[in-house]
Amino acid sequence: MRITWLGHASFRIEIGGQVLLIDPWLDGNPMLPEEHHAAATAGATHILVTHAHFDHVSGLLPLAKRLGVPVVGQFDLMSYWAETEEIETVGFNKGGTVDLGGVKVTMVHATHSTSIATPQGPQVTGSECGYMIAGEGHVIYVSGDTDVMADMGVFNDLHAPDIGILCAGGHFTMDMTRAAYAAKTFFDFKTVIPCHYRTFPLLEQSAEVLARGLPGVDVIEPQVMEPIEI
Q1: What is the pLDDT of residue 132?
Q2: In the chain, where are the structural domains located?
Q3: What is the mean pLDDT of residues 161-183?
Q4: Bridging pattern class, strands 218-219 and 138-142
Q5: d(CA 45, CA 71)
Q6: Which residues contact 201 (CB under 8 A, 6 or more apart)?
Q7: Mean pLDDT across the stretch 189-216?
Q8: For burial by CB atoms within 10 Å, which of 152, 184, 209, 218 has the most?
Q9: How many C-beta neighbours within 10 Å does residue 105 have?
Q10: Could you give the count of Cα atoms lying within 13 Å of 32 in the half-sphere of its Cβ?
Q11: What CATH number has the domain spanning 2-223?
């Protein structure tokens, strides 16, 4: 398995013969220069979306059309895009599981907000979410944008993820302290990868607090376009 950070909350996950792009923010992502876009998205088989804020979906629709791959996410948003953008989508909802060629993805709750830009102004289409991604004997929890939730204890009971990709930048999501609390209180991760940080001065710039709060856990500060082998 290879997990590659594309900056902010965007990831490329190569698992079980599939290449999943998670919230691929291309246009305007200050952490992913344009010269890396082709390598970041090469061979993608699916695009997963946690919610529709610009820093998660800007450039996603042209990318999906160019690659000819399905966009996977919350039913209402997928239905809207399928109708208005004529792209292939896989729409499902929280608690549901889809099989993406042997990689099973379960949608779970997140607590944040979501809206999408339309010609009529911002519209709320669907709701924010996270994912449990199971393959190659591992389960990855992709938190999406969220705060700490007691629901996380249920997620662990049902899915027992060993890898956590956790938003931890603060201001818009939980910060490093809250992410550490969530990880040690509700989960038994072997590996934690922070995200949604370092992008702007407003966000946290280091995962040192997260690492200190999780002794015995391999907290990996990702570097853009440098694959993490697990």
Answers
A1: 98
A2: 2-223
A3: 98
A4: unpaired
A5: 9
A6: none
A7: 97
A8: 152
A9: 23
A10: 28
A11: 3.60.15.10
> Residue 16: which of 160, 106, 139 has the closest Cα?
139
User: Distances in Å between the alpha carbon of 35 and those of 111, 134, 146, 226?
Assistant: 34, 31, 30, 15
Q: Is residue 120 scored above 80 in pLDDT? A: no
Distance CA 140, CA 73 (A): 16
Read off the tokens for 77: 């948003």
Distance CA 121, CA 164 (A): 34
What is the torsional sign of CA 139, 144, 149, 154?
A: negative
Residues 143-170 have pLDDT tens digits of: 999 999 999 999 999 999 999 999 999 9
pLDDT above 90 for 126: no
- Residue type for position 68: G
Query: Residue 15 carries which side chain, given as an amino acid letter?
Result: I
CA distances from 168 to 98, 197, 221 (A): 27, 6, 11
